[in-house]
Design brief:
- The structure is a single chain.
- The protein is α+β, with helices and mostly antiparallel strands.
- It has one helix and nine strands; from the N terminus they run αβββββββββ.
- A hairpin with an 8-residue loop joins β1 and β2.
């Protein structure tokens, strides 16, 4: 009797474990992709552009990159569309140029914000290399 009682007890434990594992797998499926993990990305000064964050699953909703522009060069006109953008300028000087002809100064140790639906360009108008990190996030 003790053996059959012990086996019956294990059967219940196995059933509970299987049920718990099934619930965990179902819950993970319902919750979507894994949470982003912390990471470090070296900003290599020898590259002209480096993607830092590609968006999900590396981040919840953010994308980021590192840009190096030689004097007189620009990234090219583009629109933020349904994103907002932040530039964190590490070195050099330049301008953020807008469709309407207006400009904002871009210089080392400054941050520049660009709102959604804004056509713009970033140009190195200085005499040294312009290095910055951009961060874009979708507006909800």
């Amino acid at each position: 009797m003790q053996v059959s009682a012990l086996l019956a007890g294990h059967g219940r434990i196995v059933s509970v474990v299987v049920l718990a594992l099934s619930f965990t797998a179902f819950s993970a499926e319902q919750m979507g992709p894994q949470h982003p993990r912390p990471k470090v990305v070296a900003l290599d000064s020898s590259v002209k552009e480096l993607i830092v964050l590609k968006g999900p699953p590396e981040s919840v909703n953010m994308k980021s990159g590192y840009v190096v522009l030689s004097p007189g060069k620009s990234v090219g006109k583009h629109s933020t569309e349904h994103h907002e953008e932040l530039l964190v300028v590490l070195e050099g000087a330049g301008e953020m140029l807008f469709k309407d002809g207006s400009k904002l100064p871009v210089k080392a140790n400054s941050a520049v914000y660009c709102p959604p639906e804004t056509e713009h360009d970033v140009m190195n108008s200085g005499s040294q290399v312009l290095r910055y990190v951009y961060v874009v996030a979708e507006v909800r």
